[in-house]
Amino acid sequence: MKEILKIRLSDVVLEGELVTPSYPKALVLFAHGSGSGRFSPRNNFIAQFFNKNGLATFLFDLNTPSEKGTGQLELPLFANRLSQLTQWLQKNSKVGKLPIFYFGGSTGAAVAVAAAFQLKSVISGIISRGGRLDFAVDYIPEVSCPMLWLVGSLDHEVLRLNQACYKHFPEGNELRIIAGARHLFEEPGKLEQVAEESTDWIFKVLQDAKNPGKKKKIPNSSGHV
Question: Which fold has domain 2-210?
Answer without folding.
Answer: Rossmann fold (3.40.50)
